[in-house]
Amino acid sequence: MNALRDLLSQGAQMLLVLALAPLLTGFVRKVKARLLRRRGPPLLQPYRDLVRLMRKDVVLADNASWLFRVIPYLMFAGTWVAASLVPTFGNGLLFSWTADLIAIIALLGSARFFQALAGMDVGTAFGGIGSSREVMIATLAEPAILMTVFAVAMIAGSTQLSTVAEFMGSNAVGLRVSLGMALVALIIVALAENARIPVDNPATHLELTMVHEAMVLEYSGRHLALIDLSSQLKLLLYVSLIACVFVPWGTAEADAGFSARASGALFYLGKLAIFGFLLALFETSIAKMRVFRIPEFLGAALMLALLATLLRFVSGSL
Amino acid sequence: MSSLQFDIAHLLAGSLVLASFMMLYQDRLYSLLNVYALHAGVLALSVAWQAYVQHAPHLYVTAVIALVFKAIIIPVALHRIIKQLGIHREIENVIGIGLTMMAGIGLVALSMVVMLRVTPGADALAREDLAFALSVVLLGLLIMVTRRNAVSQVVGFMSLENGLVLAATGAKGMPLVVEISVAFSVLIAFIVIGIFLFRIRERFDSVDVQALDRFRGERR
Prior knowledge:
The complex is a heterodimer. Chain A is mainly α. Chain A is 71% helix and 0% strand. Chain A contains eleven helices and no strands. Chain A has helices at 2-35, 45-55, 66-85, 101-121, 125-156, 161-169, 177-193, 212-215, 221-246, 258-284, 294-317. Chain B is mostly helical. Chain B contains eight helices and no strands. Chain B has helices at residues 3-25, 29-54, 58-85, 97-118, 124-146, 150-170, 176-204, 210-215. Chain B is globular. The A-B interface holds A 174-178, 181, 295-296, 299-300, 303-304, 306-307, 310-311, 313-315, 317-318 and B 3-4, 7-8, 10-11, 14-15, 17-18, 21, 25, 97-98, 101, 104-105, 108-109, 112, 116, 124, 127-128, 131-132.
């Protein structure tokens, strides 16, 4: 019976992240538009876009290899698995023993690797430049997020997300400067990885600055729908990662019943709404950076994360 | 000592190191000065917390000195100097910001390794304070080394001195007389440096210290 309940719970989580990801993107767009005193697209527009793209035919370039056709599925699968490993409404789900932070980063990293390959596959100039920029961002963002993970793991004593979240929810945490730095570093990395405004703006096709759009320019139809959905899932993943590590309140315990999980889901929706609003507020109040400023921006995240690990090292060895 | 008291001391000292890194990151003179004022403000808070934790009322005087002189008077004076010199935008770094940051991280790691090795017997608060103070001092030196502009070198020197004050408050029992005399000697040094800035500027029409190298015939 317990196994069945765990299976249902894990399945609910997988469906929940898939269903909520476009909604979060739509919500951020709506809030951004309202902050700019525009009306904005309706909240459900991302779903409609996905459905419309699914119905359309796929147009492939003549010299596209098999890799080009396989990659959208690979990216979507990797990102979906990673997103459903992060605890959303309850800890200790069925697959929580695999929900290791390093494994999640590896899944995202392989998705990004395939995306960069796809950008170069067709051989257009835009795809190449997008891939090269994406990889430049990744070389700084990946060490930064790994150092953040180390800083958090040294405090919590584990890299398993459920254990980390339970530790952060308990009273044993105390006041830690490392945690604050790790939070800021993680936010900067999340902005860069999700192509949000100071680093990239996927709403435009400006060849001077585009990163994410340049890589997926050749995709159409259901392939594009899958890629869009996986980038929405990635945003949801980062938001729920920040929520589960730094604001774990309201999440259901490992062996809680149905009602606790339902209230955990409500808390999770609230956290998503708050983070989405804050993200939109941040994006409307800041200007897009030049591409050559991005390494400095991400370098600051890397430095913060390194410093967090070092400081934790000091207070840990005392 | 309770763990909360230690955590707050750790937080303040860690923020001081972070403020040093922020100074290292700045590329405009005015924002460098603002971050320096923040640095001194954090120092004052940290010293005041040490005074509360150690029950040492004379440290409150040090905190007030740090707040008034370092966080208010010196930044305002430097603002005026910059305005008179007319150099309010540029800072020339010797090497790029990324490399400087990496060097800074290396220095922080070095100071922690050194300090935790040499002070196994002292109590936790003093050890942690000394490790952070050494890294603030080294970062101040790094600021002085990596900037060509004489004004930002002065700011690096001042932040180095903040690190010394942090070390002095962490190691218990530094007499008040010494602290006051150190504070005033730094103020005197600041005045002397200010005069020198104007002399350099009159002689070379610039406060870029590379002009000194060229004047001595060492470069180009």
